[in-house]
UniProtKB/TrEMBL annotation:
This is Aminopeptidase. The lineage of its organism: Eukaryota, Fungi, Dikarya, Ascomycota, Pezizomycotina. Its EC number is 3.4.11.-. It comes from the Eukaryota. GO terms for molecular function: metalloaminopeptidase activity; peptide binding; zinc ion binding. Binds 1 zinc ion per subunit. Residues 13-214 form the Aminopeptidase N-like N-terminal domain. Belongs to the peptidase M1 family. One of its GO terms (cellular component) is membrane. CDD domains: M1_APN-Q_like. Residues 546-861 form the ERAP1-like C-terminal domain. The record marks Y413 as: Transition state stabilizer.
Length: 884
């Protein structure tokens, strides 16, 4: 047994599962029975077989073997369970010899739960009359689907639930005749059930060799929109691509369908490896703990990640859907065809799929400034978590598969993808993709490690990739490059960046390979592709008129310039790319927070961006300003007022210019700019914008649906709730309950968190944890209340008082509970709150969110030290500039 991981005994290896799910009780009991026959190889003589099983009842198990041409069978005499390890052991009472071929048949029963893990049920309100057999309870109808990643296949059938124990699967499902069953592979046959009247038995084709976590099926009142790829594949020709929904929603799948058809072809081309399955299905699931899941051939999605209505959807979901479709399709190769060997290398799946998802988006929509968007939504977010002591390396030790859920985080996804972007830029994208293709071909249908990827990339590039990448993958944190100017030369020095600014010598032992990418002219000028490979270095003959490190922000590091140089770069914004402008703003704000700079310098720097035009630069500007306001405004009304005044002076001209009206001629990013600027100005009290938002809200509630453009729904609802008290709160709550818009419910939940009184905050929390709000969405309201300085502490007091209820409601799926804890507690900025949170959770069973509690504590500590250090500096600057 491997010393670094707790895995199943190696005496048995699965080859094929023949799985039958039947006797589904779809109303009330929500139970099922199953039989699985596993073709196995017995490598060592044994008296027992241990495999994964959780919350299952194993009724019987029989082992058939062939030894020296003699067939025999033996029934298990006993079954014991290890609930903590989620395993079952079948005891046979006599020794079974080694055998190259054996069959293990297990009869079992399980539950179709409501925790969004394993085989589970989802509530929904149909938009048209559903099939007669669809169960309905208290007005809610149900569909059924699976979610097995990371280790929940064992909740559904006894199996060897580890990523490198791959096998093939034959799946058969018994279901009502008027519903549809989907699985990884196409339907093989459908026959009337001989066991249950009104039911049919659907068999699916055998899957390729794959990991258990990628197996999937769904049962429901489904319909689809269908397309085909342009490219022809093997004997199948053009592949069928379908987006499935519950009845009445299929037309909202057309945007995802169009993207999916193109992306399957595009990835087949750039990987030089054809999509390996005979079909591509995408399924909208009404209750979903994640954003989506890459099950091979049957990809499942949260509704807001795959459905888009051209008339009623916020335009920002156009990009979200296109990206998530690309991300999950990337996994069909990188993760499914070739799978990480163990969960410590989760980043191999998620980091690459994130990068290549953005890569596909840039290919399909070049006018969306995709890589600039990646800097704001990807790299800057990754910096936030990785600047904490409680971060973790990209490749993190995972002893128990049950620990892995907590590393489905910004490090695995966003730092992983940022580091891949850095490497691809250094090697050249074509060379990088050639190495990826070689890696995929070398390990097709198998498992691989990070080192296997490095070997392929090294061969393609002729460079020692492992030598300069290992520190980025296996060490915690990232560097800040500090620049010192001297006559005729500049010095650069790298050190670990911590948000708290108090790096200890023992924490600063890593020397990263850092691509400096030094620009010494305008955007057309050449860039020197040198690298910093020591703690410090001197660079001579640099153009002192203009220079900038980390061109286009491809490197995953912060740059700390002397104040005068930062000011010059701000004045030379026209010589900088969009990515560079975003990076400078993000770096300046983060360095002030850590103490490398000051907030006064940041405010002065940001003040120079009033003429900025690009929507994504504005997105970074407003994000940075929002963080500053959150830190310094919570308990100081004078500072709060002054920071709002500063923000208004900065954004008002641009907000007034962009206006309220959408035109057919404007591009996608202009619409996003409008929503951002109007929201920011409205939150800071711009009188005309607040009045117009309230006017539109009243018109909308009076029946004029055109008064609120879907892309301004959040903006208008936010302002209405903030300014309108209980009446507006009730109106938006009713909007949540009545809207049929897929993303409209999400918008209403966030906006309800803008309430301004303790009474309404508590009222909202009661509603948030009522049956009216799906468990998957509770974090949306909690996050909004945490971002609201008027309700942050009220929510925390309520959480403490109702923790047992929260634990019971959300704890059935630790991903959901972990997310709620993180999003509701991270915004505090005082040591008293940190100590109170630590004291509350001390002594509790915090498994499943213990890592998050460490992240929360570190975040609050950084916020608190920042506020304490810079509060008077901020006050002085605001006073000196007429805001106080």
């Amino acid at each position: 047994m491997a010393l670094d991981r707790d895995i199943l005994p190696a005496n048995v290896k699965p080859k094929n599962y023949d799985l039958s799910i039947y006797n589904l009780e779809l109303g009330g009991q929500f139970s099922y029975h199953g039989t699985v026959t596993v073709d196995i190889e017995i490598n060592q003589a044994l008296t027992e077989i241990t495999l994964n099983a959780y919350q299952l009842q194993i009724h019987s198990a029989e082992l058939f073997t062939e030894h020296t041409k003699t067939e025999s069978s033996i029934e298990a005499s006993d079954v014991t369970y290890d609930e903590k390890a989620r395993r079952a052991t079948l005891h046979f009472g006599t020794e079974v010899p080694t055998a190259p071929h054996g069959k293990l048949t297990i009869n079992f029963a399980g539950t179709i739960n409501d925790t969004m893990a394993g085989f589970y049920r989802s509530k929904y309100r149909p938009v048209t009359s559903p099939a007669k057999s669809v169960p309905v309870i208290d007005g809610s109808y149900y569909m059924f689907s699976t979610q097995f990643e990371s280790s929940d296949a064992r909740r559904v059938f006894p199996c060897w639930d580890e990523p490198n124990l791959k096998a093939t699967f034959d799946v058969t499902i018994e279901l009502p005749e008027d519903q549809i069953a989907l699985s990884n592979m196409p339907e093989k046959s459908s026959t009337r059930s001989t066991k249950k009247a009104g039911y049919k038995e659907v068999k699916f084709e055998r899957t390729p060799v794959m990991s258990t976590y990628l197996l999937a099926w769904a049962v429901g009142d489904f319909e689809c929109v269908e397309g085909v790829t342009k490219r022809e594949y093997r004997e199948e020709g053009r592949l069928p691509v379908r987006v499935w929904t519950t009845r009445g929603l299929k037309e909202q799948g057309r945007w995802a369908l169009g993207n999916a058809c193109q992306i399957v072809d595009y990835f087949s081309e750039i990987f030089h490896l054809e999509y390996p399955l005979p079909k591509v299905d995408l399924l909208a699931v009404h209750e979903f703990s994640h954003g989506a899941m890459e099950n091979w051939g049957l990809i499942t999605y949260r509704t807001t990640a795959v459905l888009f209505d051209e008339v009623t959807s916020d335009q920002k979901f156009r990009r979200r859907v296109a990206y998530v479709v690309a991300h999950e399709l990337a996994h069909q190769w990188f993760g499914n065809l070739v799978t990480m060997d163990w969960w410590n290398e989760l980043w191999l799946n998620e980091g690459f799929a994130t990068w290549v998802g953005w890569f596909a988006l840039d290919h399909l929509y070049p006018d969306w400034s995709t890589w600039a968007n990646f800097i704001t939504d990807g790299t800057q977010v990754a910096f936030g978590l990785d600047s904490l002591r409680n971060s973790h390396p990209i490749e993190v030790p995972v002893r128990d598969a049950l620990e892995v859920d907590q590393i489905f985080d910004h490090i695995s996804y966003l730092k992983g993808s940022s580091v891949i972007r850095m490497l691809a830029a250094h090697l050249g994208v074509e060379t990088f993709l050639k190495g990826v293709s070689d890696y995929l071909k070398a390990h097709t249908y198998g498992n691989a490690t990070t080192n296997d990827l490095w070997v392929a990339l090294a061969k393609a590039s002729g460079k020692d990739v492992s030598q300069f990448m290992d520190a980025w993958i296996r060490k915690i944190g990232f560097p800040v490059v500090t620049v010192a100017e001297e006559p005729g030369q500049i010095g650069v020095e790298q050190s670990r960046f911590l948000l708290t600014g108090d790096v200890k010598a023992e924490e600063d032992q890593t020397t990263w390979w850092i691509p400096l990418e030094l620009s010494t002219g305008d955007q057309a000028a050449s860039t020197e592709a040198s690298a910093l490979t020591s703690k410090e270095e001197t660079i001579r003959n640099v153009n002192e008129t203009f220079y900038k490190f980390n061109k286009n922000q491809t490197g995953f590091y912060r740059t700390n310039y002397p104040p005068a140089r930062l000011a010059k770069l701000g004045q030379a914004a026209d010589q900088l790319s969009i990515e560079d402008r975003i990076g400078l703003i993000g770096d300046a704000a983060a360095l002030a927070k850590s103490g490398h700079g000051t907030t006064a310098a940041v405010l002065a720097f940001l003040d120079g961006f009033r003429a900025e035009r690009h929507p994504l630069v504005w997105a970074q500007l407003t994000d940075s300003l929002s963080e500053i306001r959150s830190i310094f405004s919570a308990d100081d009304d004078h500072l709060a007022h002054a920071l709002r005044a500063f923000t208004l002076r900065l954004v008002s001209p641009a907000a007034e210019k962009v206006g309220w009206e959408f035109t057919a001629q404007e591009d996608f990013l202009t619409g996003q700019l409008r929503a951002n600027l109007l929201s920011t100005a409205g939150a800071c009290g711009h009188e005309a914008i607040v009045a117009e938002a309230q006017r539109r809200f009243e018109a909308y509630r009076s029946g004029d649906q055109s008064a609120v453009h879907p892309s301004l729904r959040r903006t208008i609802f936010d302002i209405a709730v903030r300014e309108g008290g209980e009446e507006a709160y009730e109106r938006v709550r009713q909007e949540y309950l009545s809207t049929t818009s897929i993303d409209g419910k999400e918008a209403a939940l966030y906006s309800l968190g803008r309430v301004q009184t303790p009474e309404l905050a508590k009222k909202y929390l009661e509603f948030l944890f009522s049956p009216a709000v799906a468990t998957q969405d509770v974090h949306s309201g909690g996050s909004a209340l945490a971002a609201n300085g008027k309700t942050r502490q009220i929510q925390w007091e309520w959480i403490k008082e109702h923790w047992d209820m929260i634990r019971e409601r959300l704890g059935g799926n630790m991903v959901v509970l972990d997310r709620f804890v993180r999003l509701t507690l991270r915004k505090f900025a005082d040591e008293g709150a940190r100590r109170d949170i630590e004291a509350f959770f001390e002594g509790k069973d915090n498994k499943g969110y213990d890592r998050t509690l460490g992240v929360v504590a570190d975040t609050i500590k950084g916020n608190a030290s920042y506020r304490e250090r810079d509060r008077e500096i901020v006050r002085e600057w605001l006073a000196a500039n007429g805001y106080l």
